[in-house]
Write a structure and sequence with these properties.
Helix content: 40-55%
Number of helices: 27
Shape: globular
Length: 844
């Protein structure tokens, strides 16, 4: 099944499971027999298919005709992929259900199953109530491999379809388009399945949507047994089912609305969190745990921040700092050199199925690209290694090349599965597009280059996945040895492999590509806008900033609901759902990053507007913010489970909504000087303080905000004087850096050669042996109203040139002493920290 790390069930909830009565006892067959297959002859099977009302049938027929016309006009598609084997003699689907009317890519994949699917909503609930049937709710998404497996095995099965159509109201949910619904039902999945969650998720519920039993992926014989047992329980043990739904819903409420007594948040909490998180490191392969591994970007970002602050006098000891640095370097190196990273085309896969990062689950998700690009950008600052920035650059280039939509937005995901050939009906395999054999390599490259590619990326005859190899790189030591064997130095080998990689990538493009989940999710686009804008600014790559601006403009122009508010998703020219908390916060942070990258004030103004929407519509009386607008209450006919309160704070593959709001509030406070933002940020931290102290490993996103609030952000750009003074550090040469100070009138600071008795602007480089000299710009003599004589000041834009020692390598921290003044007041002197970008992110 497709696992996810997002939901951490507290121990007190697990203890309650002992008292739960799970009504459906399932006997697992001794062997996983093959699913019931379609007969060879083209005959429509008996699946208890209903007769639809004339008006609905007409809509379905029209939609199928339009779909056939659209598929027939796709020039690269030789035969339409209806996602069903039930086709008539004309090659058209025998079954068409309500899902064809959806704009969800996932639901559309199931529009021709022999299952009478409904979309989640009032129509399904009304049907369940009228027919006295339980709901079967299937949750997944378009790029999910195991969702595809279950679709082929079970939802195309005559026996399964007949059981569902006869005894259930079958409902499909796209977790990309309805994340709030998925999050709530995943809690029920975790409670029933001993903490495991993921997709596809199967939820059995009362007609009002309250769940009474759940399961994850099951092969067809087991799933069919589950359906029959649930149906039998529904008929014979209805009161117990109702009691089970009450118990499970009550437990869901307790997990979703976690509370704890307020506690003090200080630097000790940050130190304890570092110790607790690093205790879970794998000392051999990096990452967390010793099984399947997720990148867990929020944890890595938090630890990178803490390592940076430790070097500036933080609470970690020297030994702890060295250990933390080694663990981070190990993890980031193994992730980037292993199979988790697409060595040929760039970008990260969803997670590794093996502890050594070599065999991934081959989906590529938009949010993973954004979060891991940010992780490697920050690693470049904190660890001082340009190779981290090369990974970030390749990731962002992949996003622009493969995940951009023509309208400027970014799609949600690329599927793990792809066809093994172009012929009609070709089988699909997980990872086929991304894996190689020596024979394939030999067809593309000359013999010498083929031999080198096989050694460099470990492409072997035995392979790593069913006789095919996932390209991955060896250690730096191994690559140095290979270079010597080939009579080259390492830079020459790297350049040669870039050229070979380009040839392999071009050859790979001739294969049938994985399908695209064309959903444009607002929050995921926001994460990518932020990563691209930050990447463009740090890497000096305008192409990334341009892509970020196009995406932001697309959202502003196209992702609006009729009432003018933002939508959660967009596909096939239509918007879907109201934007949730993460949507608004992620988008606003992307707009802040665009302001930082371009200096255009309208981006900051729009970010502030998003913050006002969050404050107005999402505030919880218990502190923090709900995941959906507080006024969006749902009636029972709309699915009462959505009324279960949720204030998202847990770490996951995507950052938690409240953690993102906290980051937004702190960013706006720094850039505007408005104290209300900082006050609200402090209130958010206070609201969740007890939970953070109780289990810091679960909330590193919030802890990053706490660190920023107490210790300052880890960046190469800072603001002071209520956002009126901008200070940015850039690398101008391997042995040189520029510190640019930009003052908005009437703000200024004293020059380095300050007038007598005044505090000068000064620069301190750490470690000290990294600097040779600092060339300060001259000040301007300015007569202010309160001074009797002209003062030597920095105004406008000034640049201090820093000459570095090229012999010494590693990270560099710059501390700027500055006292910001206007023509009326002077603020307290400050010491602001910035981190020097590494030199050169040329791809390798």
């Amino acid at each position: 099944m497709h696992l996810q790390p997002e939901f951490l069930i507290n121990a007190f909830v697990r203890l309650m499971l002992a008292g739960m009565v799970l009504l459906v006892s399932i006997i697992v067959p001794a062997t996983n027999a093959a699913p019931a297959l379609a007969r060879e002859e083209i005959t429509r099977p008996d699946v208890d298919w209903p007769e639809f009302p004339a008006g609905l049938q007409k809509k379905l027929d029209q939609a199928r005709t339009a779909q056939a016309r659209q598929k027939g006009h796709e020039p690269e598609q030789k035969a339409p992929d209806w996602h069903t084997r039930w086709l008539n003699a004309a090659g058209l689907p025998m079954f068409t259900n309500r899902l064809i009317l959806s704009d969800s890519p996932y639901l559309l994949e199931h529009a021709h199953n022999p299952v009478n699917w409904y979309a989640y909503g009032p129509e399904a609930f009304a049907a369940a109530k009228a027919q006295n049937k339980p709901l079967f709710i299937s949750i997944g998404y378009a790029s999910c491999h195991w969702c595809h497996v279950m679709a082929r095995e079970s939802f195309e099965s005559v026996a399964v379809a007949r059981e569902l159509n006869r005894n259930f109201i079958a409902v499909k949910v796209d977790r990309q388009q309805q994340p709030g619904l998925d999050q709530r039902y995943q809690i029920a999945v975790a409670l029933v399945n001993q903490g495991q969650t993921g997709w596809p998720a199967s939820v059995f519920a009362l007609p009002d949507g309250r769940p009474f039993y759940t399961s994850l992926y099951q092969p067809e014989p087991l799933f069919l047994a589950t359906l029959k047992n649930v149906d039998q329980a529904w008929r014979d043990r209805r009161p117990e089912i109702g009691q089970n739904a009450v118990k499970l819903t009550a437990l869901m409420r307790r997990v979703l609305d976690q509370r704890a007594k307020a506690a003090a948040l200080n630097d000790t909490v940050l130190e304890q969190a570092v110790q607790a998180v690093t205790a879970q490191f794998d000392p051999f392969q990096g990452g967390f745990g010793d099984g399947a591994k997720f990148p867990q970007a929020t944890r890595l970002l938090f630890l990178l921040d803490q390592l940076a602050h430790a070097r500036g006098g933080g609470r970690l000891s020297a030994d702890q700092s060295r250990s933390l640095q080694a663990e981070l370097e190990l993890t980031l190196t193994h992730m980037a050199r292993g199979g988790l990273f697409d060595q040929i085309g760039g970008g990260f896969f969803r997670y590794s199925t093996t502890p050594d990062w070599q065999v991934p689950h081959f989906e590529k998700m938009a949010y993973d690209q954004a979060m891991l690009a940010q992780t490697y950008l920050k690693a470049g600052l904190v660890l001082g290694d340009a190779r981290d920035w090369q990974v970030a650059e390749r990731t962002l280039d992949f996003v622009i090349r493969e995940m951009s939509a023509a309208d400027g937005g970014f799609i949600a995901a690329l599927s793990a599965d792809s066809a093994v050939g172009h012929q009609a009906g070709a089988a699909k395999e997980e990872g086929y597009f991304y894996t190689w054999t020596p024979a394939q390599v030999a067809k593309v490259l000359p013999p010498d280059e083929a031999r080198l590619a096989e050694r460099y990326w470990s492409i072997t005859a035995s392979g790593t996945v069913e006789g095919r190899s996932v390209p991955h790189r060896g250690s730096a030591v191994a690559e140095a040895a290979l270079a010597r064997t080939e009579g080259m130095d390492v830079p020459e080998l790297t350049a040669k492999m870039v050229a070979i990689r380009t040839k392999l990538q071009a050859a790979r493009q001739s294969l049938p590509a994985p399908s695209r989940d064309e959903n444009r999710i607002l929050g995921w686009n926001g994460l990518l806008i932020e990563a691209l804008a930050d990447g463009g600014r740090l890497l000096g790559a305008p192409r990334f900033i341009d892509a970020a601006q196009k995406a932001a403009e697309f959202i502003q122009q196209n992702m609006r609901l009729p009432d003018g508010t933002l939508a959660h998703s967009y596909n096939r020219g239509a918007t879907s759902g109201q934007a949730d908390l993460a949507d608004h916060a992620n988008f606003a942070l992307g707009l802040v990053a665009l302001y930082d990258a371009t200096g255009q004030k309208h981006w900051l103004a729009e970010a502030k507007a998003q913050a006002r929407v969050i404050e107005r519509d999402f505030s919880s009386p218990n502190g923090g913010f709900y995941d959906h607008a507080a006024g969006q209450s749902r009636t029972d006919t709309e699915g009462g489970v959505l009324n279960l309160p949720l204030r998202p704070i847990d770490d996951g593959a995507e950052p938690a909504g409240n953690a993102q709001v906290l980051a937004l509030l702190l960013a706006l406070a720094e850039r505007t000087g408005d104290p209300a933002y900082r006050e609200t940020a402090d209130q958010v931290l206070a609201s969740f303080s007890g939970l953070i102290v109780r289990d810091p490993t679960a909330f590193t996103g919030l802890l990053t905000g706490l660190s920023d609030a107490r210790q300052g952000p880890v960046r190469a750009l800072v603001f002071t004087a209520n956002g009126k003074i901008r200070i940015e550090l850039t690398r101008s040469a391997p042995d040189a850096a520029d510190l640019r100070l930009q003052y908005t009138s009437p703000w200024h600071s004293n020059a380095h050669l300050a007038s007598p008795g005044l505090i000068p602007t000064a620069i301190l480089v750490e470690p000290a042996d990294r600097v040779r000299r600092i060339h300060y710009p001259p000040g301007r003599e300015v007569k202010l109203a309160f001074s009797s004589a002209p003062l030597n000041l920095y105004t406008g834009t000034v640049v201090a040139a820093i000459k570095l020692n090229p012999v010494v390598s590693g990270p560099v921290r710059i501390s700027v002493q500055i006292q910001a003044c206007s023509d009326r007041i002077c603020l307290a002197p400050e010491h602001l920290s910035l981190w020097l970008p590494p030199m050169g992110a040329a791809q390798g």
